[in-house]
Fold these 2 entries.
Entry 1:
Amino acid sequence: MKNKKRISLIILILLLIGLGIWWSVQKEVEEEKGIINDVSRLNPTHITAIIKNQEVQGIQQAVEEARKNNLKVSIAGKRHSMGGHAFYKEALVLDMTAFNKTINVDPKRKIVTVQSGATWGDVIEAINPHTLAIGVMQAYNSFTVGGSLSVNVHESDPHFGPVVETVESFRLLLVNGTIVNVSRTENPELFSLVIGGYGLFGVILDVDLRLTENAIYKKQEQIIDYKEYYRVFKNLKEDENIRVIFARLSIARDETLLKEVIVTTYENTQQTDQQQLELAHAQSGKLKKWLFGLSRSYDWGKKLRWYLQKKYSDKFEPEIISRNNLMNNDIGFLDYYSATDTDVLQEYFVPVEQLAAFTDKLREIVEKNNLNLLSATIRYIPKNDETVLSYATKESYGVVLYFNIGMSEEEQEDVQRWTREITAEALAHNGTYYLPYKLYASQEQIRKAYPHLDQFFEKKQQYDPQELFMNKFYATYAKQE
Ligand SMILES: Cc1cc2nc3c(=O)[nH]c(=O)nc-3n(C[C@H](O)[C@H](O)[C@H](O)COP(=O)(O)OP(=O)(O)OC[C@H]3O[C@@H](n4cnc5c(N)ncnc54)[C@H](O)[C@@H]3O)c2cc1C
């Protein structure tokens, strides 16, 4: 019996490895045919070429060539935005991932200067020896700095807002081929347009980022009701020593659905154990991937995952961990391939006091449409309106949802329908939604969610009248293509 189980497990693992290899080969074959896509696999687009360059001069030349040949230019990082934000039909795609050097670490000023194609993982490696850490990045290390600035990311340290807060300055390659310094005092208008500006104003070259201290954290966990979250969070946030707060809502299809919350906090221990501060190898996450797969396919898998998360969280994440090791998370466990379905992310922001009311409406939509919800987490975003396309004009919670969805035309129409329903609820609760995901929102909804959108598009016309820098996001909402 034991042997039978072992053999089934080995077959399952081999199958998964086989699928993984097949998927990466497929990806290369597609790219050779001139078709590009993003991680959602929902946006196959024919392009003219992908250009990968390590030098500023090469990037400058590529932009110049495109301009002369009347080609559009799209800028791509790791292509984890899910709405074709990093490409456009027949465009020349600048793949920035080879432009990834750390230029300088200044421990005194706590500033790192890094090229925009570097991933957060690259930056963490460069700054860890200086006991420094990143202030704001996603929950995973594989995104590029340029891609992160261009969507203005946010995460789980309650003492920071969106990443713009940590940007000192950057160099921007403009449409006319010149390079300008951009900061809050030099070209301030471009500062507010480019950050969260989806690559529409030029190529971000290198960036000066403000850092924070690396430190050793101790994890604590509590399980609460979602209606309590506002009060619990408020108390936790007031504690300067609490540096990271993760909140996961139940996805189990039972009475806990979107009600029970595991709140995980990481508190600075003030310890300085050198061994703990060293960078550990990122864990393979095989068990996590397997469990995640079960929850994608079965309701009992969702229940099991939730039960294990509550009971045995120490088996998945260590109790004592440095900030850098906590942030240096590999996204690989989310890799998934199926010809018929895919996983997508969405995020809705609501003013902090509206969280419970919005969650009630969300639960209704999830249940009514029998949605395959794989994860639901809550993030905190303090008010920040430094960027034109700010999603944090009020102090808000972000509700981040990961769904498995069908890819057929019919199924996509349905996803659009219920996504618009959730978006309408976020808007009705004085909230908004996050732009880097699939472009399901209507023209009306995006304008309600982002009242400065048309002003942003007018500025685009002013800085780039020939619309050299293009992507599917701009084509959809500015040109209504
Ligand atoms: C599994 C998953 C988890 C996520 N978690 C979070 C999270 O915790 N918090 C959060 O805020 N977001 C999160 N996101 C969203 C993610 O932060 C964005 O999609 C981000 O843009 C991804 O970075 P990238 O390198 O893949 O950028 P890409 O998707 O390649 O590009 C994004 C945009 O940036 C532009 N761009 C890229 N590089 C440059 C450059 N050098 N100059 C000018 N423009 C450029 C592109 O043109 C495009 O418009 C998550 C996404 C996924 C898929």
Entry 2:
Amino acid sequence: MQIRPFTADDADAVFEVHRRAFDGQTEESRIVQRIHDAEKAVVSLVAVENDRVVGHVLCSPTAVDDHGGNVELVGLGPVGVLPENQHEGVGSSLIQRGIAKCREAGTDAVVVLGDPEYYSRFGFERASEYGLGNEYGADEEFMVAPLREGSVDNVDGIVTFPPEFPSVET
Ligand SMILES: CC(C)(COP(=O)(O)OP(=O)(O)OC[C@H]1O[C@@H](n2cnc3c(N)ncnc32)[C@H](O)[C@@H]1OP(=O)(O)O)[C@@H](O)C(=O)NCCC(=O)NCCS
């Protein structure tokens, strides 16, 4: 299995990866498409096995109504792996590589909305303990992985995802 940067030629395969990973729903596929179209991806990586795209991870910029200094926060996700390729470490490799690429890009911390049991293994902790909230009203599912010691210690506020993500339902 090889992990490499997304290219425009991967677009259809990546759409299909997320559609199939998310039980036939295309919401995540369309988020990925919109972020790519807007050229907003901080990190976009595909996992390839036997010349076939089997997984994809996206990282995009988030904003925080910050009560501290400037902080670069990146949102991880969606991440998806084809059902027949799950439980083989592909998702973990994509997430670890994605975080490493964010660090290289100078990101202070990565946030994610997901299962705490899964994401805690990658260094994610409950974001509310760092004073970070989210617009979706998620509690323990909203997590942050500081990429440098103390990088989010002086930041408080609500983290917002780019407009290419679904807006909060009221
Ligand atoms: C989540 C996902 C990307 C993980 O990819 P993967 O290649 O299967 O992950 P890995 O093989 O590295 O790790 C598998 C382990 O992760 C854990 N895991 C996988 N999916 C999980 C989930 N939805 N919730 C909690 N734990 C999960 C399990 O402990 C699993 O261990 P097991 O193989 O012993 O059962 C993949 O399952 C997927 O595409 N799921 C559907 C889409 C999704 O829910 N994406 C995440 C939200 S953005």
